[in-house]
Design goal:
Layout (H helix, E strand, L loop, with lengths): L1 H8 L4 H30 L5 H37 L11 H4 L4 H27 L4 H20 L13 H22 L7 H21 L1 H6 L5 H5 L1 H25 L13 H13 L7 H23 L2
Amino acid sequence: MFKNFVKAARLRTLPLSVSGIILGSFFGIWQNENYSNKLNEIDAFFYVKHIEIESSLLIFILAILATIGFQVLSNFANDYGDGLKGADKNRTGETRMIASGAITPKQMKSAMISTTIITLIIALLLIYVAFGNENFGYSILFFGLGIASIAAAIKYTVGNSAYGYSGFGDVFVFLFFGLLSVVGSYFLYTKQINFKIFLPAISIGLLSTAVLNLNNLRDREEDKKNNKNTLVVKLGAANAKKYHYFLIIGALITALIYVSLDFRNLYQLIFLVAFIPLIKNINTVVKNKIPSELDNELKKVALSTFLFAILFGVGNTIF
């Protein structure tokens, strides 16, 4: 049974889900480091560096764990919702546990409740470590965002008004995997908003949406039969491919705009390495005529997004 729940958790989706946290953390920790250096120049006595390092590490660990919790919950809910609606009967790709009968709806519902409770506890610990008792307003805000993330994860495919069945899944992925993940994690460290951070956040959001778009391109025919009106179903295959090009190229452009606004050295362009497989992916999507063959591309784009997050963070904060 445990193996079935591991399969339902879809571990291959986890690198993509934490990409935004990794990128936001790079910039958040870097911003704090710059601030600490200024303080040290003024009066080192009032700044205890090892405490800041320990706090940043704990924030990072808790943010990663909370994000993984949200992602696993989303995957459980997706399996549950699609399984009850019959959308996974003839799907391509990984076997879904409800549809295959490996996990009953009742068991999956219990797993969703347990995952929600555990994730909320981790989120509360994260909020406390980041804001303490001094920033009650920020704590309430982030607790609300946590509740919103849980609701969004469940409502993607569960219920009669599941937004994944009406073409709004792309909006959810862009907002939560991109903007909220990057900007939110940055704020946990810095307690401030730097509007330039929205540029790489948009890049992560667009690349994450590209992964969803590939998934929906692969499943377009079955989704159409099951009244799952994803954006791909609404646009049609040809327009959905054009949309895919926009997502990849848009991510490249916003990343380049950030570098141009804050250019210091050529190391900042190291992230372009991650776009080599992404450009190849565009060519594959252009030529694709058999949707099931796009399944292998999902992993490539997801791992390329993960690589982009690391390289963009390293290039723009460490060098």
